[in-house]
Amino acid sequence: MSRVAGSAADRVPVERTAAAPRVGRSWFALFTVAWLVIWTVQLTPLQLLLPLQLDTADSRAGWIAGVVSSGIVLGIGGLAGVIAGPVAGALSDRGSGSRHRRRPWALGGVWLTAICLVLTGLSAGPWLIGASWIGVSVGIAVASAAFTAMIADQLPVAQRGAASAAVGSSQALGIVLGVGAVVTLGVGVLAGYLMLAGTMAILGSAAALLLPDPVPARGSGGARTAAPEAVGIRIDRLASLRDRDFRWMLIGRLVVNVGNALGTSLFLFFLLYGIGQPHAVAEDNLLLLIVVYTVFVVIASIAVGTVSDRWGKRRSLTVAAALVQAGSGIVIVASPTFGATMVAAALMGVGYGAFSTTGLAFATDLLPSERDHARDLGIVNVTAALGQLLGPVIGAALVALVGGFWLVFLAAAVLSVVGAGLTAVARERGAVAVAVAP
Fold first, then answer.
1. Over residues 280-307, mean pLDDT
2. 348: pLDDT strictly greater than 60
3. Where does residue 5 fall: left (phi above 0), alpha (psi -120 to 50 degrees), or beta otherwise?
4. CA 324 → CA 206, 412, 431, distances in Å?
5. Closest to 90 measured CA to CA, from 382, 376, 360, 370
6. What is the pLDDT of residues 161-205, one digit of tens each?
7. Cα angle at 144 between 303 and 431, to 5 degrees?
């Protein structure tokens, strides 16, 4: 019988996941819902609500001031997430052996996010909006660390690509659902935030409560009673960052995500001030671009995730995906028109969809210590989140520097290529190929 939500599943001790039983469709359905909600409430404000709140087209400072304010708000939120994710992951790893480790952190992150989304919608001005967005970023980082740890806790190696595909495809679908709902329903900024907060509170809580959260067996890495300190073994808190391959994978993942964020996070401002479209047209076309991006992200995520589980060469697929992403920036630099932007969105979707799927699976294969799954995967999550939130900061600076957007998309292409090269430096574990071999 496959592991699904329920009390029986919660009583199953955590075993070494390399030989763990395969999970069923119910597990994947709940896991996908969790990530769909996380991505929806994070990316809808990033792409639409925050730019609308911070737009300064009618102010004396001009539209560039709004771009800069947006970048600063997102950057500060990203820094908070960088700190919160690994800390929450490490604390959940050290949870008591008689209690669930992931569920309390998932629920806490879900509700912190929901509350701070309401506060963000009620805020005015960059300072108050930025303070509220910090809470959203921390909540998302905490919940993400808990949900991501379930991959390493509960899945065999052969199913990690499929789980990573669920994360990647949910990212694309989430932004379509969020932006699509706000644009097609014609709701205002506050109503949009309230809608996102309610969705997070209801569906996020349901996923956290229904997904299995096995109690660690006594003597396993997660139980305090079996802590290595008790038997005189020194724990190196920075061991994962000293692991050569894990470190290079993290750096490459960060750089590629910065490239992706540069290519996507300023789309609304680009349509408004780079191409010169009216607000109503720009919002409709933003949704169209997101739909195109999403379709190709989902297709690439599912297809490449399946291939990576069968083939096992995740590093090669991850590097190739980053190079495809680089092509999207080159297209816009060569032809800054809406038609070319549509083509670039498709290329970006293929590249990032494949990268997010195989990159996360590659990261789980490189985890240095089973004891620290959540902490280390929290760091993996943070590199992606930090890249997505540093991108707007860097992009805003580049726009202010040249008074336009061409340098933003050129930098997106260059960073994607650099990230591919850094990822290639990380070596695949020899055991992975054996684990996924038919």
1. 88
2. yes
3. beta
4. 37, 12, 28
5. 376
6. 777 777 877 877 888 899 999 988 988 899 999 999 999 999 999
7. 55
Q: Give the start-end residues of each E strand in 148-207.
A: none
Q: What is the CATH number of the domain that holds 329?
A: 1.20.1250.20
DSSP label at residue 22: P
Higher pLDDT, 227 or 326: 326
In the structure encoding, which two tokens stand for residue 250, read together?
Answer: 């993290």
- Both structure tokens of 240: 């994962």
pLDDT digits (tens, 9 = 90+) for 8-36: 334 334 444 445 677 778 888 899 999 99
Q: How many CB atoms within 10 Å of residue 201?
A: 19
Give the DSSP H/E element, type plus range, for residue 212.
none
3-state secondary structure 109-147: HHHHHHHHHHHHHHCCCHHHHHHHHHHHHHHHHHHHHHH
Structural tokens at position 397: 């600076």
Question: What band does 1 get if pLDDT is binned at 50, 70 and 90?
Answer: very low
Residue 219, in any domain of the structure: yes
Q: Can you give the pTM of this predicted structure?
A: 0.71
Residue 122 domain boundaries: 18-224+240-436
DSSP state of 404: S
Based on the structure, what is the number of domains in the chain?
1
CA distance 312 to 306: 10
Q: For residue 9, is it within any domain? A: no
Distance CA 145, CA 138 (A): 11
Phi, psi dihedral angles at 337 (to 5 degrees): -120, 165
In a domain, 303, yes or no: yes
Q: Give dist(CA 135, CA 240) in Å, integer.
A: 27
Cα–Cα dist 268/273, whole Å: 9
Q: Which helix (H) or strand (E) holds 288?
A: helix 279-311
And the tokens for 191? 């109503």
- Does any domain span residue 265? yes
| Residue owning tokens 């932004």 | 175
